[in-house]
Amino acid sequence: MNVLVMNCGSSSLKYQLIDSDTEAVLAKGLCERITIDGVLKHTPAGKETVVIESPMPDHKAAVKLVIEQLTDPVNGVITSLSEIDAVGHRVVHGGEKFASSFLITDEVIAAIEACNELAPLHNPANLIGIHACQNLMPDVPMVAVFDTAFHQTMPAKAYMYGLPYAYYEKYKMRKYGFHGTSHSFVAHRTAEIMGRDIKDTKIIVCHLGNGASICAVDGGQSVDTTMGLTPLEGLVMGTRSGSVDPAILAYVANKENKSIDQVINIMNKESGMLGISGVSSDFRDLEKGMQEGNERCKLALEIFSYKVACYIGAYVAAMNGVDAIAFTAGIGENNVFVRRLVMEQLGYLGISIDEEGNSRRGEETLISTADSKVLVYTVPTNEELAIARETVALV
Ligand code: ADP
What we know:
395 residues; 2 domains; binds adenosine-5'-diphosphate
């Protein structure tokens, strides 16, 4: 079965065509600058990336171009649209309505629309992508896979905020958590690598990318995670502040003569590693800066690693123990320095670093010594494959 995996942002669209029988990626690509002008980068498996500049006034035009490339006589990997058997859509926010993936129907679309308020930047874009695909492929079954669904198993003591209870009742104000597809995929893979039944295993997954979150997975279920109502809570990230004293919002708004929305925008886009270092949100630039003697780059990396180690400690408490810790996503898979700083803080868990293992990047590796009381791994994530698997399971 060929599954088209779609991840639509407000002006971008990432896609992969996956053969679910072999789990091979047949082609992948990215449309950028949708509604502005339009650039498509399309990579058929084993071939060079082709770059196509073509007007994309809306997402429908972008999806049309993607299909044209997938079926192109030269760059294509299928001969016609009829070879796409199903489409899996990443949807960021499923609120409390979706605790798993769903086959897309009119009712499901209405329920996703009802979550728009909780993710105003992401959900409307995801819906535009769904509508564009339905328009061009009306008979192809489609599945919505939610970033929040995996975390719906969190107990109330973990997801409730210390706010008037009425806000939860009136506005569904609570912690939802994100990156659920990745946390679930990596936790299952970690248990597999360990040769253990996930039902009897306590795993802490550290998804460290531009957006970063940590999840406590007990018996295969999310019991706590660092992101909240929105992806702004928790760790310090590339450009996001993560958790701060909430009183800072009013303080900065007054001092800088800004609205609360403007301050939130600064906390989303100009803070975190970029804000602290004043150099970059990209960890490669920060490491280079540090090696060249930039103290603020070093400080940013230390703050990031410290927060990761502190949340790991919190989640050992949340689960009353831990068997394994898994690092994943761009930084988790590749940044040797950050992993070392984090692990150096975890000696009290009986963890010692395997320097050779930790020097490797982007591959499944044990990075603690084999006799560590808690095993630490690098486990590459694969959200697209996880979405394709969920899609196949539902169609
Ligand atoms: P997102 O998907 O959230 O945009 P990623 O998971 O791609 O983010 O992570 C981006 C971060 O990962 C960047 O800070 C980058 O420095 C780091 N990163 C990605 N690939 C590599 C690599 N090959 N070597 C070192 N760092 C990397």
